[in-house]
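Priority: low. Protein: Tripeptidyl-peptidase SED4. Input follows.
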Amino acid sequence: MVSLSFLRLTALVFACTGIVSPTLAYILQVHEARERIPAGFSLHGAASPDTVLDLRIALVQSDFAGLEERLYDVSTPSSTNYGKHLSKAEVEQYVAPKPESVTAVNAWLANNGLRATPISPAGDWIAVQVPVNKANELLGAHFSVFNDEKTGHQVIRTLSYSIPAELKGHLDLVHPTTTFADIQPLVPVISPRHKSRTQADSNFAADTVPASCDEEATPACLQALYGIPSTPATQSSNVLAVSGFIDQFANQVDLQTFLKRFRPDMPPSTTFTLQTVDSGQNDQDPSEAGVEANLDTSYTVGLATGVPTRFISVGDNTQDGIFGFLDIIHFLSGETTPPHVLTTSYGANEDEISVNLVQNLCKTYAQLGARGTSILFSSGDGGVSGSQASGCSTFVPTFPSGCPFLTSVGATQLIAASGLVTETAASFSSGGFSNYFPTPAYQQTAVDTYIVKTLEGGTVNKGMFNASGRGFPDVSALGVNFVIDVGGDTGTVDGTSASSPLGEAAVIALLNDRLVAEGKPPLGFLNPLLYSEPGASALNDVTTGTNPGCSSAGFPAAQGWDPVTGLGTPNFSKLLAAALAV
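Result:
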């Protein structure tokens, strides 16, 4: 058994000096390292030397800076190139590694008796299989078995690894190595319904929001709250995709039951199509119905009336060591016409994942955004303590909400008083500032204003967060007491994973339908528009509530952007007017 003290000592030695690979004359330099084992994991012992690791290697992209520039150019309303999204080939020209990088990395592997296989459309990611003993020599690492104390699962990781000095500037990342992460659906278990609701009292006037919606949220509640139209979409090219992970299956019978009760105006045959990644499935046994999957598909189909909806089930046979998050983006990047909207209701804590991996995954979101896909992620359900409530001494940003190339969605709840219904921040709505990404230009003014005015120049919660980090969420939507059917049973659920697919993805998909019908491009990467004056003024500002955690009150909601509810919740007619004006 390799002791923890030995692992730490080895990492320290590697960090201070170059070492020579024991098998070949390569001078190794530490590329990534952790100071300690992450909380929630414990060392079990050295990994068996014969165990074969499936490693992924990211090569340095030839011109990501150029792609980022083009992404903002086609996504910023004031640009003359707004909406002129890139083709698959154009994106790949920016992210494909330089020939000399491919040659250098392949030569290194070949000299060690290894051969890699390209696994991304542009060839910037490759895969190689290597036994533990070889990987330890190749990377100057000590791969060990660690116990995930929460799930009981075991993973093989290392606290540090090195690469040849000659490959600096060619090889960006080896994975999975120093990443210790646990993907989580962001919705708790289903709860009993507050009362029995009939079809009749679920269909009320679109300009009223009954007080009952604070107890049970239905499609009619969201239609009234955000002005979401029930008029069917007409554009078949406008696809809304919902991602599914960790064996969360979307049940067709439950969907039909849901639509019959809450959207009887829709054809009874209305459903979603299925795509699979990594040997994914969609088991239709009622006992296998997933709370998360049913929630996401019921409300995207039930709110984005007539929009073609896909459920993309990512199986357990993931090849990326990060839940399948990378695999699904590579899958969609390989499509000639990717969906116009992709919503994901899963996440982790940012500090569980290596900086290099987070940055590389973020780059893949930029690739899809440049092609016209709006990528939305739930911000998390732990307030300022992370994706789920946890003990912490400083605020915990969530992943991937800190990535500047996607739209992070927080949650609100309804307060009924004196016959009026208002929105306030949901206390579980994760929000804060990334420790990995700086504040992007599109939100700099909004973030600075919040820190100066609401956090008193950063003195409130001082030392608990990174004031120069990318702020999240960007927007929010209702996330409390959603009625769903699961395995024949009916109940309610809360969570930001309700907010992303329901209040935001469905709205964006319907906006895209109207834009495409007018001969305009889909919205694509949303944030530059949302943070512009026309975009921000088309949202309902939420100014009350906080997101406590880490033995603190968290951040307070405020006028304008805040790290609880973002810029606010959608107003369909105003957003449509802003989009058509562009």
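Residues 1-23, 196-206 have pLDDT under 50 and may be disordered. The radius of gyration is 24 Å.
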